[in-house]
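Exam prep: given the inputs below (a chain plus S-adenosylmethionine), describe the expected output before reading on.
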Amino acid sequence: MNEDDRAQLKAAITTAWDRGAAEYDRIPRHGILHDDERTAWRRLVAAILGDATHSEMPKLEVLDVGTGTGTLALVAAELGHDVIAIDLSERMVLAARRKSIETGIAVDWRIGDAEDPPVPEASVDAVISRHLVWTLPEPVVAARAWRERLRPGGLLAVIDGSYPRQAAPLRLLAAAAARIEGSEDEHEYPPEVDARLPLLYQLGPEALIAALREAGFERVRARGLAEIDRIERAHLGLLQRTADGWRRYLVVGRAPGS
Ligand SMILES: C[S@@+](CC[C@H](N)C(=O)[O-])C[C@H]1O[C@@H](n2cnc3c(N)ncnc32)[C@H](O)[C@@H]1O
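Solution:
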């Protein structure tokens, strides 16, 4: 991809998220809307990074790429870690910053590209991301950049979702249910942008795992996030719960060298 193509694509992606920033946290399974969801996310992030509010657990330097309104970054910071969080969209970062001020949880918010994060090489212990990789035009380029920013042996943890290929009537029902029940979360890219995103609408984590291995990550493995799925689905309206097939997964890997 040449520089002009890349810049155009990033501009279209940034515009879409700037436009969606004000509503983002109201969308179920994106914003954290209920206490049981908050507890489940906190438990998951603590399982990934450790809970540094306990004195015997190390405080990590963590980079959250594609932080959006900062959900994952804020949970990691609440668990006692030092977090830098980056996103292309100024409005998403503004919303995140606002939450940081309201909650008193400190995060270093920055505008930046996940495919070239504005932090020095070998400077962080963990790179985390949620719901980003599907929208990366060059996931292997991004993953290489994450590996370079990690200290030797550093942890990568990526959360995304599978889109099972459902029969057309079920797909239509899920979309209509989301509209009726107010939980619509379709992204709004033009079709020519969608066509440039290799991990969009994946059936599972396999393509992501391959991209991470190609980028030099070691010990790459995936698992489903059944507890989060169950808790979040319980808060969806009946129609959407019946029709929707989205399932979360976590993929972890290690930078070489420990
Ligand atoms: C679906 S949202 C996820 C936000 C957040 N991580 C979450 O879990 O709620 C995708 C986010 O990725 C951001 N994004 C897309 N491409 C990016 C890139 N190349 N670099 C940084 N951020 C990017 C968008 O601006 C948007 O905020």
